[in-house]
Amino acid sequence: MSETPIPEEGQEAAQSLKHRHLLGLETYSADEISLILQTARQFRDVLDRPIKRVPTLRGVTVVNLFFEPSTRTRISFELAEKRLSADTVNFSASGSSVSKGETLKDTAQNIEAMKIDMVVLRHVSPGASHFLTKCVDAIVINAGDGAHEHPTQALLDMLTISDHCGELSGLNVSIIGDILHSRVARSNIHGLLTMGANVTICGPNPLLPLHLEGMSPNGRVRVTHRLDEALEGADVAMALRIQMERQGRNLFPSTREYHEQYGIKPEHLERYPNLRVMHPGPVNRGVELASEVVDHERAVILNQVTNGVAARMAVLYLLSGSSTTE
Ligand code: CP
What predicted TM-score, i.e. pTM, was given to this entire model? Predict the structure, then answer.
């Protein structure tokens, strides 16, 4: 891979990550997460300029391999790559030879034979991006693998939380909803605990994982089934989408009853005046969040989306710097 000139504001970011790939936040240290967040802030300044482009990844080819639907992650990675002057190619399973039975391994190896440097992978199977590292030499970034991890979502979430609430250490973050099927919850729990935040999870029993103790070596997760217990004293409430597509059966009676018990409503914003509301999207209005809450000034959902481009620029830049393939 060609040498990667850093943006002039980013001299400190000349350090690199210990990891060659970003498969999840479970194994990333606080120093590595801090470096990514600090670098993302520098790239955010680039995104505020009239010309939002730096030559950092000129000559680097990135393939976005999406085997599952995506709006935010896919567009955000593509924009991040373009803002860094990388050459980008987009692949989606529909309309490809996957419909003729070609495997992930064969698809990726054929694309790599066209001389690429990095792969961004979204796939329905947990562990798909780890598997890909065994099949190709390219650097692999996990853009969501089944219910396992979605590390760049958690990075942009932590960037957004720190923008609104300051240092992550000591903050109280409550994650509410379908934790069991959520790669966003998993990555956030790993990342937030590593950064010293306190994490509470809240939802109906069938949507909570059985064994939370092993989720991070650095801390425990508090569990509650009562929304008010999760919101009392919380700096941030992160509502998660009910993932019908990953549920083999109905795990709660109805979305109306779910909203009554676990939906964040205007009354909660009145009761907890310092609470910020987040959601990774796509939002089911009237289920996880009342529509008025989605549009409320203390909902920072679109700030999360804006931060996604800078966070992904930081990840692409830092991982490319750690390449040993030159
Ligand atoms: N937050 C998130 O991953 O959204 P998409 O599925 O639209 O990429």
Answer: 0.91
**How many residues are present in the chain?**
326
**In ligand 1, which atom is closest to the CA atom of 144?**
3
Name the closest-CA residue to atom 1, ligand 1: 280
Note the pLDDT of residue 10. 43
Residues with CB under 6 A from ligand 1: 70-74, 144, 150, 153, 280-282
At residue 13, the pLDDT reads 45
Task: Give the model's pLDDT for residue 16.
Answer: 76
259: three-class secondary structure by DSSP: helix
- pLDDT for the residue numbered 255: 87
Locate the DSSP E strands across 1-138: 61-66, 87-92, 118-123
From 181, 182, 233, 231, select the one nearest 202 (Cα to Cα): 231
Our mutation pick for probing the ligand 1 site, out of 66, 68, 71, 187, counting the most ligand atoms within 8 A of Cβ, is 71
Cis upstream peptide for 282 (omega within 30°) = yes
Q: What is the mean pLDDT of the chain?
A: 90
Q: How far is the CA of 84 from the centre of ligand 1 (A)?
A: 21
**pLDDT exceeds 80 at position 212:** no
Query: 204: CA distance to ligand 1 center in Å?
Result: 23
Using CA positions, which residue lies closest to atom 6 of ligand 1?
70
Which atom in ligand 1 lies closest to the alpha carbon of residue 71? Answer: 7
pLDDT in tens, 38-78: 999 999 999 999 999 999 999 999 999 999 999 999 999 99
pLDDT confidence of residue 248: 56
Q: What is the DSSP string of 226-243?
A: -HHHHHTT-SEEEE----
Cα torsion 108, 113, 115, 118 to 10°: value is 20
DSSP 193-212: HHTT-EEEEES-GGGS-S--
DSSP letters, 38-67, are HHHHHHHHHHTSSS---STTTT-EEEEEES
120 by DSSP, 3-state: which? strand
State how beta strands 198-202 and 222-224 pair.
parallel
